[in-house]
Amino acid sequence: MAGILVFVEQRGGEIRKASLQALSEAHRLAAGGPVAAVFAGEGITQVAASLGAYGAQKVFCADDGNLKLYSAEGYAAVVAKAVEDFGPSAVFFSATMIGRDLAPRLAAKLGVGVLADVVGIELEGDVFVAKRPVYSGKAFVTVDAAGSIPQVISLRPNVFAAEESGGSAEVVALDGLSLSIRAMVKEFAAADAGELDVAEADTIVAAGRGIKGPENIALIKELAEALGAAVGASRAIVDAGWIGHANQVGQTGKVVSPSLYIACGISGAIQHLAGMSSSKVIVAINKDADAPIFKVADYGIVGDLFDVIPPMVEAIKAL
Fold first, then answer.
1. Which of 5, 135, 159, 279 holds its CA 20 to 30 A away from the CA of 17?
2. Alpha carbon distance 111, 245 (integer Å)
């Protein structure tokens, strides 16, 4: 195998956890073979070498003011140049919002296909064979990238572990870049200080229409704070304006795979299940014993969330 190239995301110079997961998985699959990372942004060279701890032997770094914030054209040009210089058998992305946008754009530039949002992957000979969900998570298919060189693959965040391997990386500046950026992000509106991103959180407490009104989001946030969790939401309460779209989990929101997902007052529409059914442990709180959410839950509490959550918060704080 010629090697694996991993696109690494950063925000404000901070490496995204989901990218470290993809890099660690590439290191595992390469089994000692060549693994490189490609990294774009402004003022990032000093943190590029830290990627060696997660398996990168070489880091292609594009440190440019035009790349400070994400642009599809600019970042695609960076990854394509790294592919040209490194000659990998496969290019890995994390299936974040950026990864979902960038992976198919790169594949189109290279004239190859994409294995998107995979939740399991192995190497058989020189071909990657992956498992990915279909039909809103109701089934899984096994797919491969035979015939595509390089194989372009995006990995679902929080499914794979980010594990330090203790290596070191050579940082290489990408030279000869041709950046023709017609549409550029001018500003990034960050979430409130201390608010966790549901896409990367290891624990999520999510609210549905069962909370009855926006004033009761505070109860969900109290439980989330006690657990050190992110606050998620169903589409219904996002559409109602009770909470922002950044918190939405589901087919038209963010796809998450935390270790623990607590669904509070969420009935379990198929669109919501598509976004969280791969969570490792699911706890459902709903007063309707026939709610579909209980079909995917590992633990279910049939009861009014206003009676259930306050003693849960007290018990967690006591622990």
1. 135
2. 34
Place of tokens 């015939």: 147
In DSSP notation, 151-176 reads: EEEEE-TTTS---------EEEE--S
Q: Is the pLDDT of residue 184 over 90?
A: no
d(CA 151, CA 122): 13
The C-alpha angle 209, 137, 146, rounded to 5 degrees, equals 150
DSSP string spanning 200-255? T-SEEEEE-GGG-SGGGHHHHHHHHHHHT-EEEE-HHHHHTTSS-GGGBBSTTSB-
**Per-residue pLDDT tens digits for 204-247:** 999 999 999 999 999 999 999 999 999 999 999 999 999 999 99
What band does 248 get if pLDDT is binned at 50, 70 and 90? very high
Nearest of 116, 92, 82, 81 to residue 30 by alpha carbon:
92
Q: What is the mean pLDDT of residues 291-306?
A: 96
Which pair of structure tokens corresponds to residue 98? 């950026």
Give the chain's mean pLDDT.
Answer: 91
* pTM (predicted TM-score): 0.84
The pair phi, psi for residue 6, each rounded to 5°, is -120, 125
